[in-house]
Amino acid sequence: MKLEVGSRSGRGKQVNVLVSWVAAMAVLLLVGGCAATSSAPGSVRLGVVDSQKVLNETEAGKKVMGSLNTFMKNRQSLIELEEKELKRMEDDLVKQTSVLSANAKKEREDQLRRRAMEFQQKVNELNREVQDKQKEVLEGFREKVEKVVAKVAQQFGLLVVIEKGRSGLTVYNDSSLDISARVIEEFNKGAP
Asked: Which of 40, 88, 148, 158 is the most exposed place for a label (fewest CB within 10 A)?
């Protein structure tokens, strides 16, 4: 049995799509509004950041992922221990089936069934723990990334920075807009 990490319900995906759509509309309004009020057409400065790249390539991101992986491995080992014990009980029951009375056999089967249900509940509980920990750790890291992105955006005079990635709203962007490398560099200098 494996831990399920980062699974989302259909509702979560709908919310992400709605948030992305609202953000896209805000960018379009901002771009339209700034272009209309600025003295030079096209003076709106946009940037794109790949948060996943920042997570993977910063020292702080690597530490976050390391601690999260350690947490997940610990939970996985707890599940594996329980699973081995359950398997041992099942094997013992199979070996002893011929020598057990009908009552003793039924009692052992009931005990095995109860342990299997307890095991499944424990797996569900540990999965929830992992998902909660993942959410907590990644949200904390994201807040730090947002601060660094804001600092870099101000340095470059950017008005809007769009997140690149699966959940972001960018389908395409010119590579000259990508500030991820600069964010990584700034983050590694001294994360907030």
From this structure: 40
